[in-house]
Design a protein that fits this description.
Layout (H helix, E strand, L loop, with lengths): L20 H13 L7 H13 L21 H20 L3
Length: 97
Amino acid sequence: MESLGPWSPREDRPNRQGSDAYATAFTAYILQAIGGAAEDTNLERALAWLRSRQDPKGGFWDATSMNKKYTAGTMPSLFMRDAATAFAVMALAGKKD
């Protein structure tokens, strides 16, 4: 997620590092939308990562806001989860195996 920044410093911002479902799904979707090669190994890795991170019970991909920490289960916290899930579904659906 950090690589999609730059993000302004915020006192109550979550300290996140590493892969994120929203950032990965968004980037994979955009790469496909602009005609990225289906055999691109980075795209393949992103899609494999998404396949492995879907919540098995709820079917969603979790994500965290970079703006501030939100209470779990509240509308703002669920917004990022919904956005990550939407982009993950579109990215995975766009992949023609």
